[in-house]
Amino acid sequence: MSTRTDTALRLLIVDDRVEDAEAIASALRNAGIAVRPLRPESDEDLGRIIGSQSPDVVIAARTSATLPFAQVMQRIADSGRDLPVIALVDTLVEADYVDAIQSGARAVALRHAPQQLLACVRDAWADRDARRGLRRLEARVRETERRCDALIDSSRDPIAYIHEGMHIRANAAYLEMFGYESFEDVEGVSLLDMVAPQHVESFKSLLKALSKGEPPPPRHEIEARDIDGNAFPAAMEFTTAQYEGEPCLQVVFRRREALDADLALELEELRHRDQVTGLLNRPRFLRALEDAVDDAAQSDGQYGFLMLEPDHHQQLLADIGLDHADDLLAANAGRLQSLVGAEATVARYGGHTLAVLLPGHDYHATVAVADRIRAGFADHVFEIGERSSVITVSIGGVQVGEKIANVGQVLARGTAALESALGTGGNRCEVFDPSAVDRVEEERIQAWVARLRGALDNDGFVLHYQPVINLQGDNAAVYEILLRLDGGDGELIAPGTFLQIAEDNDMLGEIDRYVATRAIASIGERLRLGQPTTLLVKVSQASLDGDGFADFIGEQLASHQVPGEYLVLQLPEAKVFTHLKATQAFAARLGRFDGRFALEQFGVGLDSFQLLGHLQPHLLKLDRSFTDDLPNNPENQARVGEIARRARQEGIRTIAEFVQDAASMSILFGADIDYVQGNFLAAAGPGMHYDFE
Known about the structure:
The chain has four domains: 9-134, Rossmann fold (3-Layer(aba) Sandwich), CATH 3.40.50; 155-269, Beta-Lactamase (2-Layer Sandwich), CATH 3.30.450; 272-435, Reverse transcriptase/Diguanylate cyclase domain (Alpha-Beta Plaits); 464-492 and 508-676, EAL domain (TIM Barrel, Alpha-Beta Barrel), CATH 3.20.20. The protein contains 21 helices and 27 strands. Strands 18, 19, 20, 21, 22, 23, 24, 25, 26 and 27 form a ten-stranded mixed beta sheet that branches. It is globular.
């Protein structure tokens, strides 16, 4: 949804008086919505605006004499555009309300009830964005279907689609297997005709079971027969599908080769297993999770999803030795499997993180399993190599149900719960229950939103500055700005506590502008004192939409007479990958003011340097994972050196953050890293007092 405070609402207002239209626009601006109002003065003007300006929402006064409401609705209907209309009335009369809705208005709003009007505008805007998104998704689905159809045609696997037992689609490989020249020869032919007589009855039973919604077997072996009646051994695989909107079965026929069937099944099973733990691998587990999410969305199925990691993993590895890392992981996997039983789906999710999917579990059952796992680890003595050790685990989870039937949300909530459990000492369980997000939770969130709004409006944020020190002899002052929220009584709240709420409520763009404004003002003050200072400022993907934020930066730089080279805006590598075109436009716009931008959290992608073929950042900030225990991690040392070398070839400077010790400093200096920062060197504080000399 694009109803963000930094995204302008193109609002068409049909009202007789300019003052009344301006009052509506002002009320929306005061509520935090950037409004671009449009007001037609004639029917021709109305048609021109609808045709060329593409308004997002229309507010039309029911009592307008210049452009009567019925005329406005007819003009919108004739345009063929999807324009939500809000009928504006002075008093609520039942007959007027019914007439407005029957005319096609989405809502009726009272002129003198600004909060109700605001709610109508937000709902209409959000609904239009949702409809646009749905149309885009439908277009993508159609394109995907066309591509899938082309892939099926070119597939070497014999594939057919079956509806009510009859062929409705078959590819060339399928026709060739059974000896048909064209699809017309097999269209409408029963699938039973492809089965040898001795298997017909059992195959009928299978088709009846599938028609009742029973899950298909992973593999069904029969003897098939071609158009000439020749029999051959075959294996069939079934998948429920849709073809041209009709539910059907996708059938893949394969000739059975001389390979022993048991061996073939064993090989297939190995493809889905992690070789260290023997558990399911991540791709296979994600498919199971997708099926669970679909079942929850369509059939009200209940599933528990858990993620767990051993506490103090780095310390454990140091105690048992890196050569036993796989043994540690395998021991954790074996213990987990013994605690959850055979009904659960257990997998290695990634690294040393394990995952569990619990079918048929409500929230309380999921919590009970999580606590049983936690206690089962804490009470167990693990024998790893020549060492015995007690291992505790932290568990994060989420209850998969109708309210969170989305794979991305499930993984995000599970990861957040796991990080929270790890961050509060370990040996803990946290399971998120979406059905428990009741009025109390909503009130808590709204209280946070109000708190953030107050901080934006009343300068309630605090900026801290952490020195960024050059290793190559340059003593120019460079700081990174770190945002904090003033919690009162001297308490400062870290952004991790409130940024997700800000993002969920479309406030990140405003926070970006708040920080950038104060950063530029600080640079200006330092310049006037003869202390030129470069500031690094984090911005979010919310500021990449359109040119608004980049233009805002240009205006602020000009207002404070600050050269753009002293401001560096940082964007995370992962966000840039998913917003590449927007980032390119943003960087180009920023370049007009000589502003700089950096990629942070760099180096953890599959091919991070691929980005440099599309962008030319001024700085690369290495992901913090590279400096974690750097002296004892040769792989990270090699990766840091490679990034520094390739960046230097591109003329890009590098920063290593979270530097923890003198040994790491020595390694980074030897790798030709340009800048370092971290509490070991200098902690962040409210002032800029570091002596760079």
